[in-house]
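Course exercise 7: structure representation. Students receive a sequence record and must write out the corresponding structure in token form. The form below is the worked example handed out in class, using Methyltransferase type 11 domain-containing protein (56 residues). Read each field label carefully; the graders check that inputs and outputs are placed in the correct fields and that the protein name is recorded exactly as given.

STUDENT ID: A-19
EXERCISE PROTEIN: Methyltransferase type 11 domain-containing protein
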Amino acid sequence: MLAVAREKTRFPQLEYLCCAMEGVEFPEESFDIVLSSLAFHYVADYGRLVGKIHNS
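STUDENT ANSWER:
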């Protein structure tokens, strides 16, 4: 899936990561919105993840 995404998007500011989303750290105010239709339901500690996203 990552290979296909890289082929379909040619924006130098994009970075694709292959890792557990719970372990990713982002600076404060990194996002205006976060959307996931195929991944959040796999997270064991959903509350912790949402807290991290909220603080980013």
